[in-house]
Amino acid sequence: MDTQELKQLQEKYKNISNDLKIAQGERNQLQLEVDNMKLKLESFSIKNKMIEYKQGLSKKSERMNFLMKKIFSDKKHQLEIYVEKLEGLSPLNIMTKGYSYVTDENDKSIVSVKKLHTNDKIVVNMSDGYVRATVTDIERKK
Length: 142
Prior knowledge:
The protein is mainly alpha-helical. It has two domains: about 5-90; about 100-135, no CATH class. Helices cover about 65% and strands about 10% of the residues. It starts with a helix and ends in an 8-residue tail after the last strand.
């Protein structure tokens, strides 16, 4: 083999080598494109969408549970306040503090001394019972 043929072979080798490098670069580029397409396909897959929706639903469910517990707690606290107010307004609780109410013999409330006369029969109702009494003296406020 002479030098001319050797140079030609070396040139062909270089060309083939360059072509191979270009082909490998194109192959790598095509592989990247294929990989990107696979990723896009996976992101559109029903399975992944289901997983995403399930995670979203789980978060919303947790939020709903938190809010329901908070609402329940707030309403329970409000109810406790109302119960305290009602107990404070309860006639029976008021009567345990020394108050009473007066009725006539027919169980009609008497709220003013103007409705009473001497010798009228009255009933004084207290927290633990009642007392029957007769009016002996009436004094009006001025």
